Amino acid sequence: MANVIVIGAQWGDEGKGKITDLLSKSADVVVRYQGGVNAGHTVVVNDKTFKLHLIPSGILYPDKECIIGSGTVIDPKVLIQELDQLQALNISTRNLLISQTAHVTMPYHRLIDKASEELRGERKLGTTGRGIGPTYADKSERIGIRILDLMEPEVLREQLTWTINYKNVILEKLYNLPPLDPQEIITEYREYAERLRPHVVDASLKIYDAVKRRRNILFEGAQGTLLDLDHGTYPYVTSSNPVAGGACVGAGIGPTMIDRVIGVAKAYTTRVGEGPFPTEMVEGIGQILCERGAEFGTTTGRKRRCGWFDAVIVRYAVRINGIDCLAITKLDVLDDLDEIKICVAYEIDGIRTNEFPSNARQFARCKPIYETLPGWKQSTENCRTLEELPKQALDYLKFLAELTEVPIAIVSLGASRERTIIVEDPIHGPKRALLYANGTPVA
Ligand code: GDP
Ligand code: IMO
Ligand code: MG
């Protein structure tokens, strides 16, 4: 029995969807614990591409129970579209369960998200515009509407009428937008409620039951460590806690029920939206990484900013999440490069540091200090063991493990399930020590 959290160790889009799908094979239950439809997780199975925003990536296996936990925010319109798309592809969604205490994204959240970005002007965050921040803000302000409210037509009518009248003041007076019609939204959301009703449960209880029955549970993070509201590059972050600690809160279970944490990191770095990014390369190699890695957002289609691997932030992610081992994805994207740089430390105001500065203004002044390794200049996509990798690629991975101070359990060399090297079973294999000897992974 092992309960495992899969988290992003950078700024999101690390390939969590692919790794969760891969690991779901040995899980019984897959749980999403935070975030909303800002997430876009791509899973490629038998040449079919699935783009999931809220539904856990385990849904592609017919026998897995998939749970959308209490810490998420649910846009029912998008969730229903996602259900329809999966059903059209003959993927059963019968095993999908939705927490009744998750909060609901409403039309005014989407409107306020976009309008506030506009009002911020140069201070905009580059959000996905999916209403995520405003939904979590209402949760904190204690005026949010939860799935359980959606399920009771009279409660929904009463709460939505009050809330929309309240929001209309903000829409009209602050953003100069037309007011919303409560009745229209009540009717729309009552329809969504009927569609979702069969899936709604007490998710924390279901997860606890699964723990007691010694089921294997996989917790799928959305976004990434550097987008965490508390521990990321604030204010350029999302409004939830993607870090491993967030899994306990968002799923409604205790930390004693977690066995391990797997961090997913790209072999380079990307970021969507605004905010500091020390290793970013706007032109040249940055452009090459963007093209070879097809770095365009799954949710918004925006071009992702690209740069070299930043070992300082991944080592920080190891600390903040208690990562046991890493899954390194998209190594194949580096196949043709002559040489590859890795950021090993930063220089801040002339002083070298190995640590991620939690002061955002200092982080914005960080200059990367690089070490350069030779490229391997050959395709790795058909390698299935570490031994089959070119020596330079293996040296690159060993250097990443050494710098981040954790073993690498999985290496991904393509979007599909097959294009993967399992160095060591990350769920049932030995924890840390055997994989990681004297700072290098045992090949
Ligand atoms: P997530 O949000 O962390 O699940 O990541 P996304 O799905 O948004 O972005 C990762 C993208 O890279 C997707 O299009 C994946 O299909 C793709 N991908 C995942 N692993 C690999 C890999 O090892 N190599 C390549 N070339 N693509 C990959
Ligand atoms: P997955 O799960 C990458 C970014 C946005 C923006 C910031 C705040 O696919 O890795 P929000 O809409 O959440 O208020 O936007 O966070 N962002 C992501 N970047 N991957 C994601 O999810 C993201 N979800 C949000 O681009 O910078
Ligand atoms: Mg994504």
Could you describe the 3D structure shown?
With 443 residues, this protein is an alpha/beta fold. It is built from 13 helices and 22 strands. It has helices spanning 16-24, 76-88, 107-120, 132-141, 147-150, 153-174, 182-196, 203-212, 244-251, 285-292, 311-321, 360-364, 391-404; strands spanning 3-8, 29-32, 41-45, 48-52, 65-68, 73-74, 96-99, 103-104, 200-201, 217-220, 260-266, 269-271, 305-307, 309-310, 325-329, 339-348, 351-353, 367-374, 408-412, 420-422, 436-437, 440-441. The strands form 6 sheets. Strands 9-7-5-2-10-1-11-15-19-20 form a 10-stranded mixed β-sheet, sandwiched between helices. Strands 14, 16, 17 and 18 form a 4-stranded mixed β-sheet that branches. The protein is globular and about 65 Å long. Bound molecules: guanosine-5'-diphosphate, 6-O-phosphoryl inosine monophosphate and magnesium ion. Residues 12-13, 39-41, 298 line the site of magnesium ion (MG).
